[in-house]
Amino acid sequence: MRNMFLAATALALATVTTPASAAIQNVPVPSTNYITFGGVDWAWASPCSPGGCWAGAEIDMSYQSTQGWRIATAADLLTGPAPSDFLDGSGNVICASNWFTHLFSHCDYGDATSGYIWNAPGPNGQNAAAETWVLRDGNGAVPEAATWALLIAGFGLVGTALRRRTPATA
Fold it and tell me: Is 38 within 8 Å of 79 (Cβ atoms)?
């Protein structure tokens, strides 16, 4: 009986201290998992700092950076959203962590409302190493529809100009 109790206790402690591993989603972040604030897309990326809470918990920007996402700087956070802006109409936290890390699929709202945000002044003026937000400010690699239209129109003009050229006579 004692061995069974010890085994159950060890299993419970392992469950509490080890986060559930999930597959990172290497697809664009759905619009329901980020907010747009001041013309900038903001996503809550991790309940840890970009370097992780421990080894293996780092933020993976390898795919999402190709979509224009980058880690928010202290300057970005001065004009960025408040943690309360990441609550939907039902009081649920809008979170995109499983697009940026394979270890988490949640965001800690309580930490953020207490000021524990990576690269932001913490509640006692310190730089808190928790709760990472990322943003996409239009300077990313994802082309806009108008850019594609201009590119296609340019190819059309070049094609028309080449077609109208008269062949050289020998």
Answer: yes
Q: How many C-beta atoms lie closer than 10 Å to residue 63's C-beta? A: 15
- Which SS3 state, helix, strand or coil, does residue 55 take? coil
Query: What distance, in Å, lies between the first and last C-alpha atoms of the chain?
Result: 102
Residue 5 dihedral angles phi and psi, to the nearest 5°: -65, -45
- Please tell me the pTM assigned to this model: 0.66
Q: Reduced to 3 states, what is the DSSP secondary structure of residue 133? A: strand
**Rounded distance between C-alpha atoms, residue 103 and residue 54, angstroms:** 11
Please say whether the beta carbons of 37 and 94 come within 8 A. no
Give me 87's structure tokens.
């609550």
Per-residue pLDDT of the chain (170 residues; tens, 9 = 90+): 544 443 444 434 333 334 455 678 899 999 999 999 989 999 999 988 888 887 778 899 999 999 999 999 888 988 889 889 999 988 889 999 999 998 888 888 888 888 788 877 666 655 556 889 999 986 444 555 566 667 677 777 777 777 777 666 65
